[in-house]
Write a structure and sequence with these properties.
654 residues, mainly alpha, globular
């Protein structure tokens, strides 16, 4: 091994220093909600270990994430140096690049100390501008955040953040429709770093709070074996039915997707088990990849956790999380019903059978039923409106305690430490993405471009809600090609939420529509990241996988439309009867669309029946009671005729 490799051992992305920093970050995050119950004066060094206000906690969290991220996502390929596969010259170059990372680490620590010690009560920085040291510290934090976003999330995330910063500085040179007052870089840094409205605004606050605690919860589920139990239970419940592995994939992704916080991560982890089984049953590789991607994307909208975006929505709309859970439950069930319907039709067309060697549900329950306790606990606490941060921490403790109830599932201290470390690593790209989203939100607030964008959307749509929804959907697809779903939702909510409200959509409904549409980029060609990840696992071509995922995830487009034009969401003033009626219409749309796309329901559809399904879907989507009544009648006629034809065909074959 080159000599440089020895110097890099302790700084490697999996080295001891990184492990210690990750575990320490998770312990710091777990301690923060707990210390709130400790009376003042009891905790030693209370200014450091006590309950920190947001002004100090958010910079500390982000600086810790930046330091950890610089080590986990290095400029140099440290693993190749350690393996000795590089020449001395290349190893020296890698060592120099790692040296740059270390310089950035020390720069972040210094800059963060300046930010934490900044005197926010003084008026000097408002009257005379920032001191040189504070200005430099702010520039360092912004630059390193954008650089780490490039490494951990992707160059598009960095490009978006940088574009908005440049817009704040040079917006006065743009045409009138886009023009804004140009700000000096000193004012931009002052607003972004030394106020609570930019980099350290609500997005990073949510990432450092509720999101981090539930990312940790997901890590503990994996380490203790609770995640495997949920997957095994899904296979036990659905594996013996027609197309069993695909249906089990849908159920497992519904259970695990919201906990993992990432459709892509869920596609890879759950898909590593489900995709080979689907292929073994007879599904083509691109079909298996598309099914897993569509199901994993749905995990982000499935209560009780719903990924990171739901916590952001609760903050933006000032709505209790339990209310969002209740509102989301029925639409989420409709989405997974849609995916299951497609899976069933595909299996029926191909003549697939169920799995014959599945473990019984009772046997799986006997081995892991105790893992249902922490899931029940966090669901109950969320519905009782406890703080999501406290709920996540309680869930972590409950999973560990539940694992100790049975001898075969007990975890060691090293496994607990590994969960703390894995949680920290998983949180790095999420926190960095939210920090850059905070930069975007801050730029929108400083320049006022959000109001101009709202006026543009309303003007282009000519006051027509359906056209505005199309514009929002297109914007969601474009943003989602490079941004994580949570970051895309944050940007869209700030930019397009007011436009939908101006067209008569209620605040929470507008945000729920945007939240759903921000998930579509995971499965929509040409850039469908979750589908591409599934294609990698399945060994399939990316584009056919994306087309299949787009087809199966059609509910991501239909259901938001029904949110806008029906009583699908359980908001204040709506009865369950109205909501269930809207759900029935939505289900009819899903059945009609799936049947028309696949040309199959109980049996093959004739061209006339497929055309009737398309017409019925259009009638059901149109917000008029007579039109929807006609659509329901047409759906019923097609179902009855097709069912009788399929029974007659089956009888003739016998």
């Amino acid at each position: 091994m080159p000599e440089g490799g020895k110097l890099l051992d302790w700084l490697a992305p999996t080295g001891r220093l990184v492990f210690v920093l990750g575990v320490a970050l998770s312990l710091f995050q777990l301690w923060r909600p707990v210390v709130g119950f400790v009376p003042p004066g009891v905790v030693p060094f209370e200014s450091v270990f006590g309950l920190l206000p947001a002004t100090y906690f958010r910079p500390v969290h982000l600086s810790w994430v930046l330091v950890l991220g610089l080590l986990v996502y290095p400029l140099a390929n440290v693993s190749r140096v350690q393996a000795g596969s590089l020449s001395s010259t290349s190893a020296f170059r890698a060592l120099c690049l790692r040296g740059i990372d270390m310089v950035l680490v020390f720069a972040v620590v210094w800059a963060s100390i300046r930010v934490v010690r900044f005197d926010y009560q003084s008026l000097d920085h408002l009257l005379h501008g920032l001191r040189v040291e504070d200005y430099l510290a702010g520039l360092i934090i912004l630059a390193v955040t954008l650089e780490l976003a490039r490494r951990a999330v992707g160059p598009v995330m960095t490009a978006v953040g940088l574009t908005f910063i440049l817009y704040s500085a040079f917006g006065n040179y743009l045409p009138d429709v886009l023009a804004t007052r140009g700000f000096s870089f000193e004012r931009i840094v002052r607003f972004q770093v030394f106020t609570g409205a930019g980099l350290y605004g609500a997005p990073i606050g949510i990432a450092a709070g509720a999101v981090y605690s539930f990312v940790l919860f997901g890590a503990f589920l994996q380490v203790t074996g609770a995640g495997k139990f949920l997957i095994d239970l899904s296979f036990a419940a659905a594996g013996r039915f027609r197309g069993g592995p695909a249906k089990a994939s849908v159920l497992a992704s519904a259970a695990m997707g919201s906990i993992s916080g990432s459709a892509i991560a869920n596609t890879v982890t759950t898909g590593s088990l489900t995709i080979p089984m689907m292929k073994q049953l007879g599904y083509r590789p691109h079909e298996a990849a598309g099914i897993e991607a569509a199901a994993s994307t749905g995990g982000q909208i499935m209560p009780p956790i719903m990924g990171a975006g739901a916590f952001v929505m609760a903050e933006f709309t000032k709505t209790s999380y339990s209310t969002i859970v209740w509102m989301s439950l029925l639409p989420a069930l409709l989405y997974f019903t849609s995916v299951l319907l497609y899976v069933h039709i595909m299996a029926a067309k191909a003549g697939f059978k169920g799995m014959t060697n599945t473990t019984g549900a009772w046997a799986v329950m006997r081995q892991g039923a105790h893992f249902l306790l922490p899931l029940a606990l966090i669901t109950a606490l969320l519905l009782w409106n406890y703080s999501p941060v406290l709920v996540g921490v309680s869930g972590c403790a409950a999973v560990v305690l539940a694992s100790l109830l049975r001898h075969h599932s007990r975890v060691s201290l090293s496994a607990v430490a590994d969960a703390l470390y894995q949680g920290a690593r998983l949180a790095v790209p999420i926190s960095v993405a939210c920090a850059v989203a905070g930069i975007v939100v801050g730029s929108i607030g400083q320049t006022g471009v959000g109001l101009q964008f709202t006026e543009s959307v309303v003007g282009l749509s000519n006051g027509q809600l359906w056209l505005a929804l199309i514009l929002v959907a297109v914007a969601a697809l474009i943003l989602g090609m490079g941004l994580p779903a949570t970051a895309a939702y944050i940007v869209l909510a700030v930019m397009t939420g007011p436009a939908l409200q101006e067209l008569g959509v209620a605040l929470i409904t507008a945000h729920m529509i945007i939240f759903w549409l921000s998930q579509t980029s995971n499965v929509t060609p040409p850039i469908a990241l979750a589908a591409f990840a599934g294609a990698g696992v399945a060994g399939a071509a990316p584009l056919p996988s994306a087309v299949t995922a787009f087809k199966l995830a059609g509910g991501l487009f239909v259901i938001p439309l029904m949110m806008a034009y029906s009583s699908l969401l359980l908001v204040d003033g709506r009865s369950w009867s109205a909501v269930l009626g809207a759900a029935g219409i939505t289900l009819a749309v899903i059945i009609a669309t799936a049947s028309a796309v696949e040309r199959y329901l109980f049996g093959p559809l004739s061209r006339t029946q497929a055309l009737m399904c398309w017409v019925a879907a259009g009638c059901l989507l149109y917000p008029d009671q007579y039109s929807r009544a006609i659509g329901l009648v047409m759906c019923a006629v097609v179902m009855i005729v097709n069912y009788r034809a399929s029974r007659a065909y089956a009888g003739a074959r016998q």
